Amino acid sequence: MIHIVTDFTAQLTDREMRTNHITVIPLTVTLNGKNYRDQIDISRNEFSNQLKTNREFPQTSQPSVGDFIETYKWLFQPGDQIISIHIGSVLSGTVKTAQMAANQLTIPIKILDSGLTEMIKGLLLLVSRRLMVKLTTLMQMANK
User: For residue 106, what pLDDT is reported?
Assistant: First the structure.
């Protein structure tokens, strides 16, 4: 199986993530000195409400190398591959951190810098998953 990993900047819905088997690693958002894992500890609505009422602009940080390693190990089964597509490297260090994690493992992982953020990256992920499913089906048919 080919697994897709991304971060929450893709702005995918829970249904889109489940339906397309996309695993999301949360970024950390800091508001008023408190850290939240995006979409786990704080929802999009809660985050938007905080932005309206806080004078302090929130800060974000990419997932840790350990977060990536844990996720990659959790997903991987022998014969699997992982494609990890993340927020553009000009905007975040997430791609670099994902690559550092991949370099520490013997799992076949391809790290891709989307060069994008938000919904455009989400659409790229959904199209990628659909293409992979079709390609896998064609390869299975050819091997029969």
Answer: 93
> pLDDT tens across 40-61, in order?
888 777 877 877 777 777 777 8
Q: Report helix, strand and coil shares of the chain as percent, to nearest 5.
A: 45, 25, 30
The answer to whether 38 touches 11, Cβ cutoff 8 Å, is no
For the chain, list the strands marked E by DSSP.
2-7, 22-25, 28-31, 34-37, 59-61, 81-86, 109-113
Amino acid at 39: Q
**Euclidean distance between the first and final Cα of the chain, in Å?**
18
* Alpha-carbon span 27 to 2, nearest angstrom: 23
Q: Which residue has the tokens 């940080």?
A: 61
User: Above 70 in pLDDT, residue 119?
Assistant: no
DSSP H stretches of helix in 4-117 = 14-19, 44-53, 65-75, 94-103
Q: Which pTM value belongs to this model?
A: 0.73
Contact in structure between 30 and 58 (CB atoms under 8 Å): yes
CA distance 94 to 63: 7
